[in-house]
Design a protein that fits this description.
The structure is a homodimer.
Chain A: H1 3-9, H2 11-17, H3 36-47, H4 56-64, H5 68-79
Chain lengths: ~80, ~80
């Protein structure tokens, strides 16, 4: 996983979750300080269609386009914020 | 929402998420510092059966037994950690 590469991949994420992992509104989770392991699991759950309701209408389509490497890089980035 | 009441209700949660909202293993999300709004949404999504995969086999049965007041109290507690 490459956090620097992740920083280049989180432009869309940052609209809600912030560049620094502090979300822009209370309905969105902060990602700063989460483990990369958990962040990967959550993104992969969205990608697999395992989360419905909530913000899944936004998250599932976003996650669908991500490779495992993308997810690892983005998780590395946010876990280090 | 009553964070002090929440503190009495999170005994089971704390096994994985910690009394202080710092999880006991990287597969579990930290809850400290999340907004109460997000924590309520996540618990209600589990309660509604909207999350599968991941740790939902644990979370869904736990959430099923919670009232809206329980969820509000527990979310208040963890959001203040």
């Amino acid at each position: 996983a490459d956090a620097k590469a992740g920083a280049e991949k989180i432009t869309v994420c940052a609209a809600c979750h912030g560049m620094d992992g502090q979300s822009s509104a209370p309905i969105y989770p902060n990602l700063a300080g989460q483990s990369a392991t958990y962040l990967e699991l959550a993104l992969k759950a969205y990608r697999a269609g395992e989360r419905s309701g909530g913000m899944s209408a936004v998250m599932t389509p976003q996650a669908t386009n991500l490779t495992d490497e993308d997810i690892a890089d983005m998780a590395a980035y946010y876990s280090q914020q």
